[in-house]
Amino acid sequence: MLQSAAKVLSFASATSVSRGIATGIRHYCKNTPTKLRVSQALSGAELGSNIKVQGWVRSVRAQKANVFLHVNDGSSLQSLQVVASSELSDPLLTFGSAVEVTGILKKSPHQKQPVELDAKQISVVGECNPVDFPFKIKERHGLEYIRQFPHLRCRTNAFSSLLRIRSEATAAIHSYFKDNGFVEINTPIITSNDCEGAGELFQVEPSGPDYADGENFFSVPAYLTVSGQLHLEVVSGAFSKVYTFGPTFRAENSQSRRHLAEFYMVEAEISFTQSLEDLTKVMEDMFRFATEHVLAHCVEDVDLFHKHVTPGHRDTVDAMLKNSFPVITYREAIDILHRSSERFAFPTDWGCDLKTEHEKYLVKHCGNIPVFVTDYPYDLKPFYARDNQDHPERTAAAVDLLVPGVGELCGGSLREERLNLLSARLEEAGLEDVYSWYLDLRRFGSVPHGGFGLGFERYLQCILGVDNIKDVVPFPRFSHSCLL
Known about the structure:
Blueprint: H1 2-31, E1 34-35, H2 38-42, E2 50-62, E3 66-72, E4 80-85, E5 98-107, E6 115-126, H3 143-146, H4 157-179, E7 183-184, E8 190-191, E9 203-204, E10 222-224, H5 229-235, E11 241-249, E12 262-271, H6 276-297, H7 299-309, H8 313-322, E13 327-329, H9 330-339, H10 356-365, E14 371-377, E15 395-403, E16 407-414, H11 419-428, H12 436-443, E17 449-455, H13 456-464
Parallel strand pairs: 1-2, 4-6, 7-11, 13-14
Antiparallel strand pairs: 2-3, 2-5, 3-4, 5-6, 8-10, 9-10, 11-12, 12-17, 14-15, 15-16, 16-17
Helix pairs in contact: 4-6, 4-7
């Protein structure tokens, strides 16, 4: 009994000690500031608590008794107001400097801001000389000016908003495909295929003392991919719905507002389909889903563009979402262009490739909303486009989605699944040996299938109204600028 009582007392003492330690830990944690992102603080999370925020100073205003800062960490367009005693002022506390602020999060007495941080400690983590810094505190900088500083432009309101929108749009597209039963496939970036057949390729060669000039690492020429389509077609022989979302490259000799050497493509492939309507439905649904998601989750960031960068563009976006996308054939498009009183720089005869000026006119003609153009001349499309076998105008089962302000956003087609027709076309182009593996896809369990690709940067241009495609990528590439 005595031993049992001793054990009980021992256990009780140990429990008391452990409880004391635990109480001490809880007491310590209670006084330790909670680290919050600016967006969390602005939402009122941890109101009345001791918190810590880390970010960059967007404005500084010193008064006799207090110093007012606006701190932003990229999580929100809005900055958090920090109110500090003038005793915490520091000569290094300047516009652009990086800081760490600890204090009590309180309700703000001002209507324009829900909360403010009553600072107890401010540490300058990184200095910034506001005189040398290319962005000035009280100036609104245009996109052309910002573009001169690709390594610093993410610190501006416009571009930080763009990057948040881009991130949210990426998540929305992945969500759309996941919700609709598509399997994501990571297609190769280095490949021997020229999917588009245009020859605008970046060739990849090894460097270093172990390789001679011009030596092929894979024993055959290799290139940066222009499309993941052919690899998706491979996988569509085992999966009925697949997609990829990744970087693609075009060595176009152009520094225009429309072209990029490196850009992102959303590409999808659907098996067991014999109708372009199956493709146009996915294109339209994905466009609507992603756009509605961005408008709902990036309200302030989108408003910044629609109010200050591209005023009035919100009406265009609302019209795109409100109306169904019309469908016209290439023949109807040519007839519309012929009847137009507008003077085009390029011809509009049957068999011509539609240029940007033609595409934008067709969009306006159809009510300034997205429009599908189908059944292009067979000779305009790559070898894999399905032959409609119609006469006398031979066409392919191909479709483009044209959108306001941009022109072509998506391009797709049914794929030629008939072995004899595909083989004949490859032989005519002298590509039968190069694409013998592609013919195998038609020999072993082939099914009718089709797919499309969407230029992600063009999509961002479309919903934001941005004119220059280099303003919707994190790092634009110029022949005269560093590539970072």
